[in-house]
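To whoever is on call:

I kicked off a structure prediction for a single chain this morning and the downstream step that reads the tokens threw a length-mismatch warning. I double-checked the sequence; it's 210 residues and nothing unusual in it as far as I can see. Pasting both halves so you can look.
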Amino acid sequence: MNRLVRLLLVWLAARRAVRRTPPQDRPSGFDEYRTPMRVMPNDLDLLRHMNNGVFFTLLDIGRVDLLVRSGAQRAVSQEGWYPVVVGESMRFRRSLVLWERFEIVTRVLGWDERVVYLEQRFERRARGGGSEVVAEAWIVARFLRRAGGPVPSTDVAAAFGLDGPSPAVPEPVLAWSRALDLAHREVEPDGPALAPSADESSSAVREPLQ
């Protein structure tokens, strides 16, 4: 199935869920958002498994589902903000094959002054019952203003209904983010922000489909 068709179907389902659910009963930004999908013929590689690149493409759609169903999309649109992914990393555990059903599970881990940290997983039904993880990803994102300039992460969190300080982000996620120079940079007392070391690599900004 074409990515735009998938995105439209998820967006419509999310909008319908928002309209049918009273504000007090809607999930919070910290809840897990599950986006059901199925492996389609154009998702496959030559070995008839879902292509690795498709996993990354579908993560965008899972984040759109979270943005709409959490109610944050309205605030983001009104403020003239838009999200960009500044880094993502995925671990593949198992394969998905044609017509297999799976879910993308998306949740916010926390934030710092510069970026928001998310976790996304691909899950399917296990043979013995329950679910099993097919792949898991860490994502670092931020929001920018269409008029120019970044949006403070605390303002983004408020749009998701997340007031107060960020919960503790898992240390492995923070270590990965620092290694790629994605996290908030500490400022020296008498100098500029600390620069990454020579062996640290930077990650290019990639805008997801809006």
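Update from on-call: the warning came from a stale cache, not from the record. Cleared it. Sanity check on the structure: The beta strands are 33-38, 81-92, 101-111, 116-125, 131-145.
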